[in-house]
Design a protein that fits this description.
The complex is a heterodimer. By secondary structure, chain A is mostly helical. Helix content of chain A is 43%, strand content 9%. Chain A has a single domain, classed as Serine Threonine Protein Phosphatase 5, Tetratricopeptide repeat (Alpha Horseshoe), CATH 1.25.40.390. By secondary structure, chain B is mainly β. Classes of the chains: A mainly alpha, B mainly beta.
């Protein structure tokens, strides 16, 4: 009997120990993925559906490009109505994806950057590794750039070190406290991330959702323009165009189509450097009651192909249909036409009148009916700048660019402009350099982080 | 022979399980063969002490590991006998334990909270987890059961034991924090003549009440549509190139505006529509009285060596929504054999279940406007006066739909009534369970046992959406392409669309256990068990869709998922063909070691202790955090056994005290950054690249939840058990609970989940039974009274006050887990009818100011949203062969928030709650209504202020007459003439209704959305041969 007991104990021990090893290592859910490999990090950065490749939208509604009919105003959500009339409180306490989405992009980018740093076994100099790292750095810079245009005051070199910038989140630790940096630090971070990314990225990618060298230079040029550093802007824009300078010829497009611009994601639009669409969580952008400002529409020349490509007429207004995404999504990414305009503008500002007009004409020949275009000329840098800025507005309508242009141009008394939106017969005015040019930070962010609210 | 089986079972099991492991260490086979010679296995069901020796009335509780006489237990058990369970009539087993277990409460269809997806249907002594699985552990015949409880036929259940404290439940370790319900199925008994039992019953239920929650009337809805039309609200949709549908009234208004219809005709038609209410048609054509039939037959018997139990059951239920139905067949075959001079006992249980469910089309839901998006205007007519199906407008405008049909597309009209004929959504389930055990008495006081379970369930849903169904026609039409010569191409092929959903679960469990039981010198009694358990629960599921399915020949057609197609209704919109195929595999693994010992001195002093180590495959967690050790200690004192005790009027008196820890595991989190791999999202312009979403930020401190439980109990019984009962006090302290907090969105996430919460639960359970009269007329009363309160003691992040208001509210430290807060109001503005609140002590309409500057103290704390006091009072009167029993249930000490009108929805022409008609319309109305005026422009802040205002919260306390059971047992002489041993007829009425309620809204607080569950009436008969 004693033996019986002993054997019983032994078999139990044997079975328990033999079954144990590895038994508890099984993943509960097969779909669980702990990102460790380059393919995992690439998959995170390829989340263009829910996270990346989206820009902000609300500020578009505050520009002088947009026109809402009275019906369209009624149809819009309260936050959209408030933005359109530059109300003091915009959000009515609601959380805003215009803030949450870019910071989600930064979080995802930081997960990738932290993951690359901590998984030392990864081949750290391979082309794939570099491209992933460069893409994450670009994504962080792009998100910060977009946020800065809406939630910080316009950049002015003299005061940027005293003014509030954005919270800079550089690790994936979600428990880290948010602190607002200075405006200078915010732009320094954007530039630093872009500079680090330049040499990591390839010249071409198979997918427009991934950035290239030309994308980085284009965003550096955009940032330099915002920071009023025109020599740098000119340099970066030239470098971007040196890498990719193709333009669509609007003569080849069919204005009768619902979306005349070829689809970007099927690589049919060579102008698109980086695919991004505007935040779609608001209703006004798809509404047939939202149109382009009539004066802007009327400013296109008769033989200009753009109004036919960009707009369609419903009974009362002109709706936008010229998205560079080539679909119902409204494009908010980066394209070569913008880079040409940055180059032209900075050339003009740097006193290179002839060169500036030459750059502009390269773009405009592709926008006018073949054989009916006459090269534009200017006799002075000032005249050139004036022409270029007008063309810039006409070319880049509904591209998430007008708002930042208004902010920076208003700083120059020559280009100051008061905007008026009329709703049900009441005129609302946005004065140049008004504090309303800085959006308030959403209430839930202030409540949960304790960071300082913008003055408005 | 038996040795061989043992060896095979052991070795196969071990190999089988280690095959799943990454680096299996293969057992050395020759050793197993050698050592298994001595394995002694006995079924866990074998009692460790012979209860018949000690107790006149056998009252055995089962923990799933062992059975013990209740008298000798230190823990908190509630034992439900077959008789208790058979009082109610139902298809399922769970509803039969409602209102008869102290501390056990069912959460009702309470619209207050939907944040807690894990909120369980029933809870034992409150909820001590916030995010984790809050369901009690269900154990069926020794092993945890994760399957569908509807698969258990109540006729096969012998008894149920509910384990409530640490000493009783901690043997179940990490899964026991929410309590344990141990279900023991019927078995044969030794030395019993064959006995056949037959039970059948029929139940009829009323139609559900579609009108319980008031909805905006058709007239009000149409008036709003008219005013929105005047404001141009619909012009966007009207001009939209997507041809999005407009309601009939808006179409009439357009026709009137454009001069296509004479104004008088249009107005008359609109007025006529005001008289229709879709719910009337839904009630007439889609609802029916439910009807359930239940048949159960069993055969049981046994001799000295072997006993058996065989049973078969058939349930046929016809639901209240056409054509919903549920049919179930259950078959059981259990046997137990004793061999080798009764030293070896071998039991097998085989259980087979087949069920067949037909789903009704989702036409109706109890949202504000009572109709789904399928029928989105309340005056839709489903049938004409002759009962012919009528078209209901949806998705696209009728003119567009007609032009499409002219172009050769399929008929695009939607007739809900016709859909009834095309519904073919069927779920078939096949489940079998094999439960086997071997036990061997090594020594008279020592038994070794091995138990094995294999449970396999297969659920197959086939939803065949035929080409006649609107779903299929709509999808085919949307993708139809017109080619240059006007011929049509069908990217989605003609034919039905067949959705298949399969789910397979496999549960393999093995337990090795030693039972020890010894009495020394008649005074010292020692019982002990020790063992280990290994368990794997695996679930595989997938969904597939077949397009262009040809029912006649069972053929499917391929489609091109990778291309995008311009949509027929708007060719600017391209979309890929919906790809819904999924594959999912989930594996839970547990490895546990347990021991449990009890010592009784002189039948008077009881001491018990248990310890258990549980380990699970928590993902990405370090090995030392994968497991958690849990323990319990218990003391008992049977006072009436003391020599000094002489109270003859109270012959039984016992005190108990226990302490211990139980656990809970939450597997959706990971210590590492966790992402989910996905395929591209079909209807979005995309790259087609695989992508990943981050589902969980890194959480290095993740661990198991722990609940520490104190329990003190007093059991007593007066002479002849005229009055008997149990009184218990408990305290449940939950630590390291998983909680979600709102977090600064700048972090990249908006909520964070981790071990950051703690709770404290306290309560009292009282169970009092009295035999008021005994004799010809027997009157017995059973009273159950429970007090339960769980307070959140720690919640790491403070959230803005407004988040505590909404239905997705946060737990708040110092308040019950589920609490109701509201805005303090100062009545309606007499001039405008705007709701008013307080800002800095002043009456204010600055809703933004109130929202942003309020602190938690500015909110009104109404109270708990779950009952603090609950229980039942059951009276049973029997006279001769007739017995009548009525159960009254009460739930007290909690609050609910009344649903109301959402003016934002009204302003979007969606419709809303019927409170709309009570809104403030002119000065003076503020004296008679609490509903504000309709604002000129939609205002979320104002709406939220009102929705969560204190005037909409009231006490939910109520008492309801739950059910009445009337039974008539045929007299013995008649029964024996019929060659039977017993015949009983019974009548049972359920859900009889409220007796009293505290709220002044005149609502059943537990069912304000859908109305109280329909009354049912059952008639049944039991025959024993």
């Amino acid at each position: 009997m004693k033996h019986t007991l002993l054997y019983t104990a032994m078999i139990i021990i044997l079975i328990t120990t033999s079954c144990k090893k590895g038994f508890l290592e099984k993943k509960p859910d097969k779909a669980f993925l702990v990102p460790t490999t380059l393919a995992d990090f690439q998959a995170i950065l390829d989340n263009s559906n829910e996270v990346f490749n989206h820009t902000l939208l609300l500020s578009e509604l505050a520009t002088d490009d947009i026109y809402l009919t009275d019906d369209g105003f009624t149809y819009a959500a309260p936050v959209e109505q408030n933005t359109y009339i530059w109300a003091k409180d915009l959000y009515q306490g609601q959380s805003q994806s215009d803030w949450n989405k870019p910071y989600q992009q930064i979080f995802y980018a930081n997960i990738v950057l932290d993951g690359l740093a901590s998984n030392t076994s990864l081949a750290s100099n391979s082309q794939t590794y570099n491209q992933i790292k460069g893409t994450a750095l670009f994504a962080r810079a792009f998100a910060l750039y977009n946020l800065a245009q809406q939630f910080t005051v316009p950049y002015q070199k003299a005061t940027a070190s005293q003014q509030l910038g954005l919270p800079l989140r550089l690790t994936s630790d979600v428990q880290a406290k948010s602190v607002r940096s200075t405006l200078q630090q915010t732009y320094d971070q954007i530039n630093a991330d872009l500079q680090s990314a330049i040499n990591l990225l390839p010249a071409q990618t198979a997918y427009k959702t991934r950035p290239t060298k030309a994308t980085i230079y284009a965003l550096l040029a955009r940032t330099a323009l915002i920071m009023e550093n025109y020599p740098q802007a000119e340099g970066y824009a030239s470098q971007s165009l040196a890498s990719e300078n193709r333009l669509l010829d609007f003569n080849n497009l069919n204005p009768d189509m619902d979306y005349p611009v070829p689809a970007a994601l099927s690589n049919n639009n060579p102008e698109v450097l980086y695919y991004a669409v505007q935040n779609y969580s608001y209703t006004f952008s798809g509404s047939t009651l939202t149109g382009v400002e009539p004066a802007l529409y009327n400013s296109y020349a008769d033989n200009d192909l753009r109004p036919g490509i960009y707009f369609k007429s419903t009974d009362r207004i002109f709706n936008f249909k010229g998205s560079y995404a080539g679909t119902y999504e409204v494009f908010g990414g980066i394209a070569t036409d913008e880079v040409y305009l940055i180059l032209a503008e900075s050339q003009a500002r740097n006193g290179k009148t002839a060169l500036a007009m030459q750059t502009l004409n390269t773009l405009l020949t592709k926008r006018f009916k073949t054989g009916q275009f006459q090269n534009v000329t200017a006799s002075s840098p000032e005249e050139a700048l004036d022409i270029i800025l007008k063309e810039r507005r006409k070319e880049l309508v509904f591209r998430n660019i007008r708002w930042s242009d208004l902010r920076r141009l208003n700083l120059d008394p020559r280009f100051e402009k008061a905007i008026i939106h009329t709703v049900n017969g009441i005129n609302y005015t946005l004065a140049p350099n008004s504090s309303k040019y800085t959006f308030p930070i959403p209430n839930d962010v202030i409540a949960n982080s304790g960071i300082t609210q913008n003055e408005r | 022979m038996n040795k061989t089986i043992k060896t095979i079972v052991m070795a196969a099991l071990c190999l089988n399980l280690s095959a799943y492991a990454q680096k299996p260490t293969k057992p050395k086979k020759h050793k197993i063969v050698k050592t298994t010679d001595t394995i002694k296995v006995s079924p866990a069901k074998a009692s460790i002490i012979e209860p018949e020796q000690n107790l006149k009335e056998v009252n055995i509780v089962s923990t799933g590991y062992q059975t013990l006489p209740k008298e000798r237990a230190t823990g908190s058990f509630t034992q439900l006998s077959n008789k208790d369970l058979n009082r109610r009539v139902s298809t399922d087993i769970l509803s039969r334990i409602e209102d008869i277990v102290p501390g056990l409460s069912f959460s009702k269809n309470n619209s207050n909270f939907n944040f807690y997806s894990s909120q369980s249907q029933l809870s034992i002594r409150g909820q001590s987890t916030i995010m984790g699985n809050a369901n009690p552990l269900i154990v069926i015949d020794n092993f945890p059961y994760d399957g569908d409880l509807n698969n258990i036929n109540p006729n096969d259940v012998e008894s149920i034991t509910v384990l409530k404290d640490a000493a009783s439940a901690s043997i179940w370790g990490a899964k026991a924090a929410n309590g344990v319900i141990v279900i023991t199925t019927k078995k044969g008994h030794s030395n019993q003549a064959p006995k056949i039992s037959f039970n059948t019953n029929f139940t009829v239920g009323n139609k559900p009440d579609l009108f319980y929650q008031p909805q905006m009337s058709s007239a009000d809805f149409i008036d709003v549509e008219k005013s929105l039309f005047k404001k141009g609200y619909y012009s966007d949709t009207e001009n939209s190139s997507t041809h999005a549908s407009l309601t009939p009234v808006v179409e009439l208004l357009i026709a009137k505006r454009d001069g296509l219809l004479a104004p008088a005709t249009a107005d008359a038609q609109i007025e006529a529509l005001k008289n229709y209410d879709t719910r009337k048609d839904l009630e007439k054509y889609f609802l029916q009285k439910s009807f359930s039939q239940q048949y159960a037959i069993s055969l049981t018997g046994g001799n000295q060596q072997q006993n058996y139990y065989l049973s078969a059951g058939l349930d046929k239920n016809m639901g209240s929504i056409k054509p919903a139905s549920y049919n179930r067949i259950t078959i059981n075959a259990n046997q137990s054999t004793k061999l080798l001079k009764d030293k070896l006992e071998f039991t097998t249980q085989f259980n087979f279940i087949q069920s067949n469910t037909n789903n009704a089309p989702a036409l109706y839901n109890a949202s504000y406007n009572n109709v789904t998006t399928d029928i989105y205007y309340p005056y839709a007519r489903l049938a004409d006066d002759q009962g012919n199906a009528l078209t209901v407008i949806r998705d696209f405008r009728p003119a567009f739909k007609n032009s499409a049909t002219d172009n050769g597309l399929l008929d695009w009209n939607y007739k809900p009534l016709d859909e009834l004929n095309y519904a073919n959504d069927n779920i078939k389930l096949n489940q079998f369970r094999v439960n086997a055990s071997l036990s061997y008495k090594i020594l008279p006081q020592l038994t070794a046992s091995g138990l094995f379970l294999y449970d396999h369930a297969d659920t197959r849903e086939r939803n065949n959406q035929s080409m006649q169904s609107y779903f299929t026609r709509n999808l085919i039409n949307s993708y139809t392409q017109i080619i240059s010569d006007n011929s049509l191409a069908y990217p989605i092929p003609l034919g039905s669309i067949m959705d298949l959903k399969n789910n397979t679960t496999n549960n393999i469990s093995f337990r090795g256990q030693l039972n020890y039981n010894q009495i020394l010198k008649e005074k010292h009694q020692i019982t002990a068990i020790a063992g280990y358990e290994i368990r794997q629960q695996q679930s595989l599921s997938n969904t597939n869709r077949n397009y262009g399915y040809d029912e006649e020949h069972a053929l499917t057609n391929p489609v091109s998922y990778l291309s995008s197609f311009p949509q027929y209704f708007f060719n600017g919109y391209t979309a890929a063909i919906p790809y819904v195929d999924t594959e999912k595999e989930w594996t839970d693994r547990y490895l546990s070691y347990f021991t449990n010992a009890a010592y009784t001195y002189n039948n008077c002093y009881l001491f018990s202790a248990s310890a258990r180590l549980d380990q699970s495959n928590l993902f990405g967690v370090k090995a030392n955090q994968k497991g958690t050790p849990l323990y319990s200690l218990g003391l008992g004192w049977i006072i009436n056994q003391e020599s000094f005790y002489h109270a003859d009027w109270l012959p039984y008196l016992k005190l108990r005290l226990t302490y211990g820890a139980n656990g809970n595991v939450y597997k959706n989190l990971s210590a590492l950054t966790n992402a989910t791999a996905q395929n591209y999202y079909y209807n979005y312009p995309n790259t087609g690249l695989p992508f990943a979403s981050i589902t969980n930020p890194p959480n290095p401190t993740l661990k198991w939840e722990r609940v520490k439980v104190w329990n003190a109990g007093l059991d007593f019984s007066s002479k002849n058990a005229r009055i008997s009962g149990t009184l218990e006090f408990y305290q449940k302290k939950g630590t390291d609970l998983i909680g979600t907090s709102v977090i600064d969105p700048t972090s990249g996430i908006t909520t964070f989940t981790g071990n950051n919460a703690a709770t404290m639960g306290k309560g009292i359970d009282l169970n009092l039974n009295s035999l008021n009269t005994n004799g010809q007329l027997k009157w017995a009363t059973a009273f159950i009274g429970s007090y339960s309160k769980t307070i959140v003691t720690r919640y790491n992040l403070d959230s803005p006050p407004y988040t505590y208001l909404s239905a997705f509210g946060q737990p708040l430290a110092g308040k019950p887990l589920l609490s109701i807060f509201s805005n303090k109001t100062a009545g309606l503005d007499p001039q405008t009818g705007d709701p008013r609140g307080y800002l800095n002590g002043q009456i204010s309409k600055d809703y933004y100011g109130i929202l942003t500057s309020q602190t938690i103290n500015d909110l009104v704390y109404n109270g708990s949203a779950t009952p603090s006091f609950f229980g039942s009072l059951r009276n049973t009167i029997s006279f001769k062969n007739i017995s009548l029993s009525a159960n009254i249930a009460y739930r007290l000490g909690y609050y609910f928030r009344k649903n109301t009108v959402n003016f934002g929805a009204v302003a979007q022409g969606i419709g809303s709650h019927g409170d709309y008609s009570l809104r403030w319309q002119k000065p003076g109305d503020e004296l008679s209504t609490i509903v504000p005026s309709m604002p000129a422009t939609p205002n979320y802040l104002r709406q939220n202020f009102y929705t969560y205002s204190d005037v909409l919260v009231d006490k939910a306390d109520h008492i309801r007459l739950q059910d009445i059971n009337l039974a008539y047992t045929l007299p013995k002489n008649i029964v024996s003439k019929l060659n039977c041993t017993g015949i009983q007829f019974y009548l049972y009425a359920n859900n009889l209704g409220l007796i009293w309620k505290a709220n002044h809204f005149n609502l059943d607080p537990d069912y304000q959305l859908s109305g109280p569950p329909p009354r049912t009436l059952s008639l049944g008969c039991k025959i024993d041969l």
